[in-house]
Write a structure and sequence with these properties.
Helix content is 80%, strand content 0%. It has 357 residues and is an all-alpha fold. It has a single domain (2-175, 188-356), classed as Growth Hormone, Chain: A.
């Protein structure tokens, strides 16, 4: 039953990400259509990436106070309304409002959903998060492919966004089928989060740069799209086996291996070996992302508030890392990828500290 419930939560992520990734490629064009410019594109991009970070602590509190199911549904519903609202935006302030609503929902739902998975898969957390990550990434892949098809079909941008918004509402069906129950499991809540875990979470996500950065350096749009699809295919195929492996060998070992592969992908990008880099990048994220959530669940239990704090710290790491790497790329070119390479190795060292758990 627990595995079935986690699969339902994974399908919820599948439909939500399918809708999101259908909208993402056309959003810059839509902003220009409404009279915006590069500044507005950058503003919306920064808002989409950073705003959920500042909401996750609130999302964690709501999850512990109001319950897993109601908070998760509220988060997905809010995001779906935000995405659908984009298609009815006829001004830049309206668009900005709906983007904010969408990302607010993301910040509310993610800590609670992850704590819920940690609770449901009490003894097989790696497998649980592997299921969720695999379906989440598969949805993103399907959304990207559908976006490419609709663009080639010359559909109006506003209609594509409308389709993405409607698909996002499908995410509410699977989560509604999950029963909120402890299944006899006592929820373990650890109010004290180890300081070393906070430091590690920041450094690890500082080094785990966003996929858009190497895509920009590829230069060719078609080649970049194909490499992005390859990354998502590798990630989707390996996320579940990586979770099963973590349950057998231990999350620390597999998370460390994931960060090592992410560091190696940075090395490949620094040498302009983009095909190899994206292949290793997908493998690294498959080993790293879901299993880090499983490790956190083992350390702090299924506290939504704890997940909210740590995911907020991770978001700050991502935001800082992407800003630093983006700036350095404009100054020193591909040599900038040596920064995530080195910080990734530092993160592995911090993870090895006894104080982390």
């Amino acid at each position: 039953m627990a595995k079935r419930d986690v699969t339902m939560l994974g399908l919820t992520s599948f439909f939500n990400d399918m809708g999101s990734e259908l909208i993402t490629p056309v959003l810059p064009s839509f902003i220009l259509l409404l009279g915006g410019n590069a500044f507005w594109v950058g503003l919306v991009s920064a808002l989409r990436e950073s705003f959920p970070t500042f909401v996750k602590f609130l999302g964690g509190i709501l999850g512990d106070k109001l319950g897993r199911k109601s908070t998760t549904i509220f988060g997905y519903l809010t995001s779906a309304i935000g995405k659908l609202g984009l298609s009815f935006s006829f001004s830049l302030p309206a668009l900005l409002s709906f983007v904010t609503l969408d990302r607010f929902g993301k910040g509310i739902r993610e800590p609670t959903r992850d704590a819920w998975i940690s609770q449901l898969m009490n003894h097989n957390k790696g497998e649980g998060f592997g299921i969720q990550q695999a379906l989440d990434t598969l949805g993103a892949l399907m959304g990207s492919v559908l976006a490419a098809f609709l663009l080639l079909s010359k559909l109006p941008v506003r209609l594509i966004i409308l389709i993405g918004g409607l698909i996002s509402f499908l995410s509410l069906i699977p989560v509604a089928l999950v029963k909120e129950t402890n299944n006899g499991i006592k929820i373990k809540v650890k109010t004290q989060i180890p300081f070393a875990l906070l430091i590690f979470s920041f450094i690890a996500y500082f080094s785990a740069y966003g996929v858009l950065i190497p895509l920009v350096e590829v230069g060719d749009v078609l080649k970049g799209t194909l490499l992005f699809i390859m990354f998502n295919v590798v990630y989707a195929l390996l996320a579940y086996p990586a979770g099963r492996l973590a349950d057998r060998m231990g999350e620390k070992i597999i998370v460390s291996a994931g960060i090592l592969f992410l560091s190696l992908s940075a090395l490949a990008f620094s040498l302009s070996a983009f095909e190899v880099g994206f292949l290793i990048y997908g493998l690294g994220f498959a080993l790293f992302k879901g299993n880090l959530n499983a490790l956190i669940g083992d350390i702090i239990g299924s506290s939504s508030r704890g997940f909210g704090i740590l995911e907020g710290v991770m978001g700050l790491g991502v935001l800082t890392g992407n800003i630093v790497l983006g700036y350095l790329l404009s100054v020193i070119g591909l040599n900038a990828f040596y920064v995530p390479l080195l910080t990734g190795l530092i993160a592995i060292g911090v993870l090895g500290l006894d104080d982390i758990c």
